[in-house]
């Protein structure tokens, strides 16, 4: 059951990554230059309170040095790449090991 859930989440993340890649490609073609949406830009698009609330939560629950060098740089990663990477990892982790067939050769 857990393997199914992880695989389903992975497939949803992969689908979201491909959708973000298509949106980036469409914006790049329409604008005439390369446009890649970062996680930070996507958070700001979702709502004005998403980014400050994330910053407030990280500073409240983690040490202060985690926000500036780590989380700020992670938020600059392209959204499509992050979703594709996380989705691929979930699908790989949920993959069932192949069954051994026959007798072991010794």
Please state roughly what percent of the residues sit in beta strands, choosing from under 5%, 5-15%, 15-25%, 25-35%, 35-45% or over 45%.
under 5%
Query: What is the helix tally?
Result: 5
What's the β-strand tally?
0
Order of helices and strands: HHHHH
Radius of gyration over C-alpha positions, nearest whole angstrom:
19 Å
Going by helix content, strand content and strand pairing, the class is: mainly alpha
The percent of residues in helical segments reads: over 70%
Tell me the count of domains: 2
For the sheet with most strands, the description reads: none
Organism: Methylocystis bryophila
Protein name: PetM family of cytochrome b6f complex subunit 7
Transmembrane segments: 75-94
Keywords: Membrane, Transmembrane, Transmembrane helix
SSE topology sketch:
Blueprint: H1 2-31, H2 39-46, H3 50-61, H4 64-74, H5 79-93
Describe this entry's structure for a reader.
With 106 residues, the protein is mainly alpha-helical. The chain folds into 2 domains: 1-36 and 79-96; 38-77, no CATH class. The chain has helices at residues 2-31, 39-46, 50-61, 64-74, 79-93. Helix 1 (2-31) runs antiparallel to helix 5 (79-93). The longest helix is centred in the N-terminal third of the chain and has 30 residues, at 2-31. The two termini are 35 Å apart. The relative contact order is 0.21.
């Amino acid at each position: 059951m857990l393997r199914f859930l992880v695989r389903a989440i992975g497939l949803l993340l992969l689908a979201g990554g491909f959708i973000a890649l298509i949106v980036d490609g469409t914006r790049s073609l329409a604008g005439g230059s390369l446009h890649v949406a970062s996680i930070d830009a996507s958070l700001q698009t979702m709502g004005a309170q998403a980014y400050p609330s994330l910053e407030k939560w990280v500073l409240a629950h983690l040490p202060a040095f985690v926000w500036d060098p780590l989380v700020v740089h992670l938020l600059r990663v392209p959204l499509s790449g992050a979703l594709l990477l996380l989705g691929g990892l979930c699908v790989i982790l949920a993959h069932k090991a192949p069954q051994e067939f026959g007798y072991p050769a010794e």
